[in-house]
Every structure is written in C-alpha cells, then in structure tokens.
Structure prediction request, 364 residues.
Amino acid sequence: MSWTVNGVIARAKGAPVELVQVVVPDPGAHDVVVNVQACGVCHTDLHYREGGINDAFPFLLGHEAAGVVSTVGSAVTHVAVGDFVILNWRAVCGECRACKRAEPWYCFATHNASQKMTLADGTELSPALGIGAFAEKTLVHEGQCTKVDPTVDPAVAGLLGCGVMAGLGAAMNTGAVRRGETVAVIGCGGVGSAAVAGAKLAGASTIVALDLDDRKLAWAKGLGATHVVNTSGLSHDEVVGAIREATNGFGADVVIDAVGRPETYKQAFYGRDLAGRVVLVGVPTPDMVLDLPLLEVFGRGGSLKSSWYGDCLPERDFPYLIDLFRQGRLPLETFVSERIAIGDVEAAFAKMQSGDVLRSVVVF
Ligand SMILES: NC(=O)c1ccc[n+]([C@@H]2O[C@H](COP(=O)([O-])OP(=O)(O)OC[C@H]3O[C@@H](n4cnc5c(N)ncnc54)[C@H](O)[C@@H]3O)[C@@H](O)[C@H]2O)c1
Ligand SMILES: [Zn+2]
Ligand SMILES: [Zn+2]
Prediction:
C-alpha cells in the first residue's frame, strides 16, 4: 500500500517552494505513518530552501510537527495507531559512542524511516531533518514519535518538535542556566524567544533580549525578558555595552546566539562575563567564518558551546514541557502567531523574514 498526499517541496536552491503530490510508501518494519495535524515553519526550512544545509534537493520541508499515528510497521512497539505524537529528529540509537558514554542527546546515529518518500515520478525526496511534515502524511521511524497528552492543541504541541525545544534547551540544557544567573539572548524569533522562556523557567535573575525588531522584543518581554535592546543600527561596542549595562557592568553569565552570524557570535563572546558560557543555537551558513583573537578565547575562560536541538531528549523533555504548558507555567500558545494552509509556506517565509511572526503554523 502507499498514499499520495499534498506536500511542500524545495526543488532547487533559492526557488520558491512548491505544493506537489508526494508518495508515502508502506512503512518498513520500524516505520510509522503519521497523519500530520500541524507543522510550524522554522527558519531551518528556509535554510534548506536556500541550499544552506546541503545540496540534496528536492527537500520535503517541514519538521516541527504533531499528529496522529495512522499506520505502523510490522515490528513497531513504541507507538500504536491512534496515538497523538510530537515528531522529533532525535530518535536515539543507544549504540553509538555518545549513547554508550551516557550522553544520548549527542547521539551520532539517530533513527529515520527506512524508506524514502518520493514524487509521483519516483524521484526520491530528502525529508527536512529526517521528518518532512509539510505534508498530510509523513513517514518516520517509530522512535521519532513521542506520545504526549492528546488534549493539547496540535499547533501548540508541534512547536516542541524543533524551534521552541531548541531555544528552551539552549538555556536549560546546553547553557545550564542556574537560578540567579544573568542571561542575554541575541535574536528573538521562535528559537530565541523560547530561550528567554527557558532562562525564566531556570530562574535567571536578569534576561536581556536583543533583536532588530521591536515586535520580537515585545514578545520576548511577555515571555520573561527583563531588559530589551533593539540592536538595529548599533555598533558592536554599543551592543556589548548594552548587555554589560543590564548586568552590573560585567556581561551576562550565559549569552545565547539564536541568530548564528559571525557578528552576533562576537557580540555573544564579548557580551559575556569572565568564565561565562556562550551558546550558539542559530545555524550559520557554509560561507561564514569567525575571526577572534585567540588570547581573548583563552583569557576570558568559560566555555563556548553549540546547541543541537537544545540537547534535548524528546522522550524525557516533551511530556514534561507539555505538563508545564498545561499547568500554565510555559505559555507555548504565545509562539503561534498565525495558522495557515499548506499552500501558504512561501508566504510564511516572507513573514518570518519581515519579522511579522514568531511562528506560522500549517494546520491540516
Ligand atoms: N540548533 C538547533 O537545533 C536549531 C533548531 C531550530 C532552529 N535553529 C536555528 O535558529 C535560528 C533562529 O531560528 P528561528 O526559527 O527563531 O528564526 P526567526 O527568523 O524566527 O528568528 C530570527 C530572529 O533573529 C533576529 N535577527 C536577525 N539578525 C539579527 C542580528 N544581527 N541581531 C539581532 N537579531 C537578529 C530577527 O529579527 C529574528 O527575530 C536559525 O538559524 C535556525 O536555523 C537551530
Ligand atoms: Zn546513539
Ligand atoms: Zn527547526
């Protein structure tokens, strides 16, 4: 059996996305077909479209999703038909070097579906982050499905599948923000705003939000920022100065770069206190090069970390964060700026770039 459904692909570098017919094959032994109910538009989808991740076009975009399991492969035990799940791109293998040394959030061999979804002519698609959920149905490995409370709105739950988890985890897991610490977040889109919320949950005393757009800063304030700085037109020294001014002149204990450009990384590097932590969660493009005095890297101490998916473990973190949401302690609904149809992804990219939204979410 196979299914033909509507899906959004990026056919070639920089070309507008297209709504096409996608063929979802019968699941392999450990694969699962999911009826996608909602899928957020993440900046990483745009990176794929622009060729910034790799050249394996055509991509089936979309990777921040929730839905209901509709068909399972013969050996699937982890989920059952009818389960409400958030899709994840970290189905840990349990056997790689990272898993064996008890650091599964770095797993180097995460599971994906055993078969490829294709175009009607048989062309194989590369699903974004091994998911591909701007489609009515998608095929994933059973481990990519995390069962959560089915009463939660799929548009809200799905956000944990990528950007919001990446931001929360950049603060709570990678940055390991402790109560009373000072935090600065550069770039307050879906990911950075979630980092603000994560810093608040972790008990940060000061949270400085920096962005080029006042609307993003207003959202960040609503999520817990104690100081906001519009960095548009500011020099490097002015940005660093603003972070220091908000943190008793010292710089922040943790600075999270949720943009991922050499200039924002330098702001993070110099905006942090001695022995502080820099967390890079924004994804740079292949052409970007960082140039820093090595003596400063040494002399300022502390640590420079990258955060892949907020160092999350979906099976541990998604149900817990859904609990916090249900208790009113994590306002995930704030991130859903608009609900759109599957044909509106290209327009959503434009809104993301013009700063109109935290998240556009495709609902099915
Ligand atoms: N590491 C991960 O696991 C992971 C997961 C999801 C997304 N990401 C990446 O995180 C980044 C942010 O994603 P998003 O979905 O929040 O994007 P977004 O487009 O919603 O947000 C980016 C924000 O950065 C701001 N910005 C841009 N340039 C800036 C600058 N020079 N200084 C200050 N602010 C600036 C924009 O105004 C915008 O508010 C992207 O690079 C994305 O690919 C990483
Ligand atoms: Zn592993
Ligand atoms: Zn993403």
Remarks:
- The first helix runs from residue 43 to 49.
- The first strand starts at residue 2 and ends at 10.
- The chain has two domains: 2-161+331-363, 167-307.
- The pocket of nicotinamide-adenine-dinucleotide (ligand 1) is lined by residues 42-44, 47, 162-163, 166, 186-192, 210-213, 216, 231, 258-261, 264, 281-283, 307-309, 352, 355 (CB under 6 Å).
